[in-house]
Design brief:
Number of helices of chain A: 6
Order of helices and strands of chain A: HHEHHEEHH
GO molecular function (chains A, B): DNA-binding transcription factor activity
Number of domains of chain A: 2
InterPro entries (chains A, B): ArsR-like_HTH, HTH_ArsR_DNA-bd_dom, WH-like_DNA-bd_sf, WH_DNA-bd_sf
Structural class of chain A: mainly alpha
Radius of gyration of chain A: 18 Å
Oligomer: homodimer
Distance between the termini of chain A: 26 Å
Pfam families (chains A, B): HTH_20
CATH topology of the largest domain in chain A: Arc Repressor Mutant, subunit A
Strand content of chain A: 5-15%
CATH architecture of the largest domain in chain A: Orthogonal Bundle
Domain HTH arsR-type (chains A, B): 1-94
Strand order of the largest sheet of chain A: 1-3-2
Protein name (chains A, B): ArsR family transcriptional regulator
Chain lengths: 121, 121
DNA sequence: CTAACGTAAAACCAAATGGTTGTAGAAAGC
DNA sequence: GCTTTCTACAACCATTTGGTTTTACGTTAG
């Protein structure tokens, strides 16, 4: 049942950093290696590498090896998915929810889980 | 110059948590107090209160005092702003950037800063 | 072959995050 | 008035985050 939650967490968390958003912008054409990207920021190579990893785990970016180097390419579809997550959130209070979730449950479980009511206290 | 960066950080960070996204969903009608919200989650009142604060600092939610209690209301416009931030990100690699930033600079500075190139190394 | 480059991964550190409990004040109910 | 309810805030704690440096390894260039 819990499917979208962690994915969405990773997605928005990855977007919640200016350097990472900038990496996304620069990597659309998929021509830049991690080192080339790293040269663009006032931090170590390792730090940029970590940012790329965060973007990768969020599905926002893919890496393609070309010989020595690793080319970073942003997945435009993943960014669209982020927008979709927001639109779905908005849809919740615009009444389109029922039809939405019907469609979604037909294809794959992408409806976010709702935290349990607390039983103790 | 740096205007959108921190705001966007806060915005996406606030969205990067399932409990907070759920609070957003529940608070559209603006009828629920912090305690009422807190009762819905398996964590302490203080924890939920902190989540509401995060949403508030991100501009996603406002609080309105009604006597003893504080009613939470999500600002649908703020969620639209989040979507706009993503659309702007996508616009970067779709050529609409130039016209976009022209329009934006005319109204208010909402263009995100770009981290400096590193000078040392 | 050897040197240089690009990447990966580990160890470490300070600061932020997400949770807890406890204390205190303001409003409402009895 | 007194008690209860709701809120706010502080102090504390464990984990995560975002950065560092160092070491190791594969690939390319001389």
């Amino acid at each position: 049942m819990v499917v979208e939650s962690d994915d969405t967490d990773r997605l928005f968390h990855a977007l919640a950093d200016g350097t990472r958003r900038d990496i996304l912008r620069r990597s659309v054409r998929g021509e830049l290696s991690v080192s080339q990207l790293a040269a663009a920021y006032p931090m170590s190579f390792a730090a940029v590498q970590k940012h790329v990893t965060v973007l990768e785990r969020a599905g926002l970016v893919t890496k393609e090896r070309r010989g020595k180097e690793q080319l970073v390419r942003t997945d435009p579809d993943a960014v669209r998915r982020a927008r979709t997550a927001l639109e779905q959130l908005e849809a919740t209070w615009r009444g389109r929810v029922d039809r939405m979730s019907q469609v979604l449950s037909r294809t794959s479980a992408t409806v976010e889980d709702t935290p349990n009511e607390r039983t103790d206290r």
